[in-house]
Structures are given as structure tokens and as C-alpha cells.
Design goal:
The protein is α/β, with parallel strands linked by helices. The chain has seven helices and ten strands. β1, α1 and β2 form a beta-alpha-beta unit. It starts with a strand and ends with a helix.
């Protein structure tokens, strides 16, 4: 059975540079054989070593709302699928994301965990499944995608409702951390518009021994962050 690392690039929120850097970070930090696949409607400037698959465009659907397609039981990728959002920094070995609880769907426990004990919602920045696992996530979504988009704030809320308790596992919290909330301690931002903001004061993250992935949800995006650690681990 093949191992895939996949990402999703839709629209112009993230450039091809983000796909290429994710591909390079995975190459540096994964020793298991894998194929790297990007689903996109625009492959301009993406590294030719990245396998490109077209997004099956759906009226009214954009951005993260294409993530349910990875649960399509007829997806052409047949094997183990490890999904990453583009706004992550991978800086240590991630073999364990393929070897952990291999029979289960695995996903991040949402980062509000840093203030709410036993928080039990999903964050879909990193998840893993086997082709055909939890097909209801796709099948029930595709019946009326615009209704689900109106009902839920984001794809991860829909996925959480569709997947029942006991049929998934959270990644250990220490493995995948929020850069701004858990590694940098929720610092203050400068006065730039949302989407362009950086931390008010540059600093260094606190990194746990078993953390390998930093997630940049919201602000700052990695390309806007002037922390030297980010420059060293994402820019290169």
C-alpha cells in the first residue's frame, strides 16, 4: 500500500512557493517512501517533482471546504494519505505520523486545548486516513455542500460531526503545536491588516522534545514572520 503526503492549494491565498517549501520540508524530514501530491486548480510555478491532481471544482465550494474530497471512497490515491495544510513548518522527523495508530483516522486536537482542558474539537491542519475510511465525510457533504458550508464555520467542524467518537485518535498534543499559542505563548501582533500581521516583537519559540510540526493558523503566515527560527526552518 502506498504512502502519500498531500496538500491543497486553491485560489491565491498561498503561492506556489508554499507548496514547494512543504515538499522540501517533507523530503528533509520523512524517511518512509512516499509520493507528494498537490490538489490544485493552478499548478503554475509548482516544482515539477510534485504530482499535480486537479481539484474537482464544485459551485460554491472554495478553500478548505475541498478537504472532504480526501474522504471520497473513489479517490484515485489508494493507500495511506497524510494531509498537511500549507501554513505549517516541519522541522523534525515525521515518520511517526505514518506509524501511529495505523488503523485509525488521526487528527489534531484543536489548539483551544491550550486554555480549555479536555477540549474535544478537530483541527484539520494535519490529518491521516486510509483511502475509503469514513466515506460519510465526503458522501454526506457532496449531497448538498452549500448547506454544510452555511451550517459550519469550517471543514474541521463538519468532519468532527461526521466522524463518530471512538473511530478516531488525536495526535499526541506535543507532536504538532500551534506556533503562536503554544510555541510562542500568544504574543501581541503589530498593526498591519489581518493576513499580513507579524508578532509585535520578534522572539524564539519554546519547543518540546517531541514536537516536529508547527502550525501557523491565522496570523502570522510563515512568509510574514520575522522570527529567526521561522526563517531558518521555512525560508531555506
Amino acid at each position: 500500500m502506498k504512502n502519500y503526503v498531500v496538500c491543497l492549494k486553491y485560489g491565491n491565498k498561498y503561492s506556489a512557493e508554499y507548496v514547494n517549501k512543504l515538499y522540501n520540508m517533507v523530503n528533509r524530514n520523512l524517511t518512509i517512501d512516499f509520493e507528494f501530491v498537490c490538489y490544485t486548480e493552478d499548478a503554475t510555478n509548482i516544482d515539477p517533482k510534485v504530482i499535480i491532481k486537479p481539484i474537482p471544482l464544485i459551485s460554491g465550494v472554495s478553500g478548505w471546504w475541498y478537504k472532504p474530497m480526501f474522504f471520497n471512497p473513489n479517490l484515485e490515491l489508494r493507500g495511506t494519505i497524510l494531509f498537511f495544510d500549507l501554513d505549517v513548518v516541519i522541522f523534525r522527523n515525521i515518520d511517526n505520523l505514518f506509524t501511529f495508530e495505523t488503523s485509525k483516522f488521526c487528527i489534531i486536537r484543536d489548539f483551544n486545548r491550550h486554555v480549555i482542558k479536555d477540549y474535544n474539537k478537530f483541527n484539520s491542519s494535519v490529518f491521516r486516513l486510509t483511502t475509503g475510511q469514513h466515506p460519510q465525510v465526503y458522501n454526506d457533504f457532496i449531497k448538498d455542500p452549500n448547506m454544510q458550508i452555511r451550517r459550519f464555520q469550517g471543514d474541521q467542524d463538519w468532519i468532527r460531526v461526521a466522524i463518530k467518537d471512538g473511530t478516531y485518535k488525536y495526535w499526541p498534543d506535543e507532536w504538532i503545536q500551534s506556533y503562536k499559542w503554544e510555541m510562542r505563548g500568544k504574543p501581541r501582533f503589530d498593526k498591519q491588516p489581518r493576513g499580513q500581521r507579524d508578532f509585535e516583537v520578534n522572539g524564539a519559540p519554546v519547543i518540546k522534545d517531541t514536537t516536529s510540526v508547527a502550525v501557523f493558523h491565522g496570523d502570522p503566515n510563515p512568509h510574514n514572520c520575522k522570527d529567526q527560527w521561522v526563517i531558518d526552518n521555512w525560508i531555506k
